[in-house]
Design a protein that fits this description.
The protein has 296 residues and is of the alpha/beta class. It contains twelve helices and eight strands. α1 packs across α7 and α3 runs parallel beside α5. It binds thiamine diphosphate, iron/sulfur cluster and magnesium ion.
Length: 296
Amino acid sequence: MTFRLDQLPKKKYVLPGNAACAGCGMMIGLRVLGMALGEEVVLIVPASCSSVVQGLAPKSSIAMPVLNVPFASAAAVATGISEAFKALGVRGHAVVWAGDGSTVDIGFAAVSGAAERNSDVIYVMYDNEAYMNTGIQRSGSTPKYAWTSTTPVGKREQKKDVALMLAVQGAPYVATANIAYPQDFYRKLKRAAEIPGFKFIHLYAPCPPGWRFDPAKTVEVARLAVETGVWILWEYDRGAFRLNPPSTIYRDRAKRRPLADYIKIQGRFAHLSDEEVRFIEEEVEAKWQRIAKFLE
Ligand SMILES: Cc1ncc(C[n+]2csc(CCOP(=O)(O)OP(=O)(O)O)c2C)c(N)n1
Ligand code: SF4
Ligand SMILES: [Mg+2]
């Protein structure tokens, strides 16, 4: 199913005047989530930028029911909400909207547990690649070499591929998405809503202050991640693993833009040597090779 951006629903579920920074990628993603699921959703939000920028009820900037929950509990709370919906005969989706820190680190046991129970939950992890709300600390999802306030000379460890981990665990639907491709994200949310059981969407969401780039360039940075092959759009739909456009093009390394185009635009990578950039390029290729094994 393909459709134009102007064919997406017009109603706004994220209201103006919220406290997000200019150019916040996470808020672009949340707007799309509202368009796709806004009428039938309870959002479960662990501590994060999302829980802060929404403001206080009754003047919250999120026009959807929101349950703000402790850090590690989001997936477990969502299981409870979805079971309550079933018991009461309520039509609706329990949707977790969580950052990378609470998902890949502190809350991962609950996430993996919900996947094991196959709880009827849509879990969206918006990935700004650090603990942004508390001052840009590195998370398990921060990419190697990136500056954060706790990795002043660059992170030394690899980024966790949490989506692939959950696909391997056997969750019925797992996908990656990117805020520069809202139609793709919208379609994936709609698809997730059709499938019973545990669904996980890993959304790439740049953060201008945390990644140190001009807030006007959020969508450009997000698009460059796909065009350089750093971010791969794929979905695993009940056993079928496939790439999604435009990542289908970038499987061919020769078609990718040079990685430097992505690196040079972000201050968090300003300290990298050319050798380190070449090294990351090889790691990007290694990730493609890993994904390719699932496509065979
Ligand atoms: C158990 C616990 N530890 C630490 C905190 C402090 N805290 C609140 S938000 C946050 C950062 C969350 O990072 P992430 O999940 O990536 O979301 P982001 O802020 O990037 O949106 C932290 C560490 C907390 N609220 N609870
Ligand atoms: S710190 Fe980053 S993720 Fe948090 S509100 Fe600002 S731009 Fe958004
Ligand atoms: Mg984060």
